[in-house]
Amino acid sequence: MPSTTRTRRLHTVENPKKSVTLTAMTGLFALYSLLPLVWLVVNATKSQSDFVSSFGLAPGGRFALFDNITAVFHYQDGIFVRWLFNTVLYVVVGAVVSTFLAALGGYALAKLRFRGKRLLLFVILGSIAVPGIALAIPQFLLFAKLGLTNTPWAVLIPSFVNPFGLYLMWVFAAEAVPTDLLEAAKVDGAGEFRTFLRIALPMLAPASVTVLLFSFVSIWNNYFLPLIMLKDPGWYPLTIGLNEWNKLGSTAGNGALIQNLVITAALLTIVPLIIAFLCLQRYWQSGVALGAVKG
User: Fold this and answer.
1) DSSP-based three-state secondary structure for 178
2) If phi over 0 gives left and psi between -120 and 50 gives alpha, with beta otherwise, what is residue 62?
3) What's the CA gap between 197 and 185, in Å, rounded?
4) What is the pLDDT of residues 146-200, one digit of tens each?
5) How far, in Å, CA of 184 to CA of 189, rounded?
6) What is the largest CA-CA distance in the chain?
7) DSSP string across 119-172
8) CB atoms within 10 A of CB 285
């Protein structure tokens, strides 16, 4: 009997029962998520005349994707390249710094003892519940007093603070970093910061990748904060720049051309996100597997 029960359990784990309802719902959700992307790809390959005359999901008569990309990079003296550079600057600096600060803060909350720790935890949990858009106006007033509006710092500094990433790193550090190993490092003469860099930070790599991806996507898609902070088009990220093109298309006489450029540019803006997820996928999956084993 024990052998039979064990065989049944192994069979259940290796060949789980499939749910038709769950499979159908997952398929519908995947279709709902991929349909806008398919529409974007199809319309980015159309010429201006095909974009006006053909149905959204119907392919155009001529494959014009590369012509459209060339037009995007040359329109308005190539300002799209400037917007792309600005976005990469905001994302790389903001995501790396916010991830490092989240790892440092999460490690301190999980492994160090200090006064006010419990109160700080409540503040972090409360800040997660506050939407970022609610803080945009107070941040604008503060940066206006400091004379930092219409500068890259007005976008970068708020992106350094990531309460959710800090909470995630705190939870992960509490389980992933052995206290005995930290104490052994301190006995050998390592300082607190050196112990964090040499011992704790490599162990926090899976969670760091997850926080980095969240920060990457959040900063890349950030719209409202740059909208109120920046006035100089030379410092616009892609989200604000494409919106300016879209508004120009609704008022200019060549609206179809600009709409075609906006769609092609929108397709180009999601390519870095796809590349980032594909490149960091195995690190993210290792973190999920590690958490499952510990659970």
Assistant:
1) coil
2) beta
3) 11
4) 999 999 999 999 999 899 899 989 988 888 888 888 888 888 888 888 888 888 8
5) 9
6) 81
7) HHHHHHHHHHHS-GGGGHHHHHHHHHHHT-TTSTHHHHHHHT--HHHHHHHHHH
8) 12
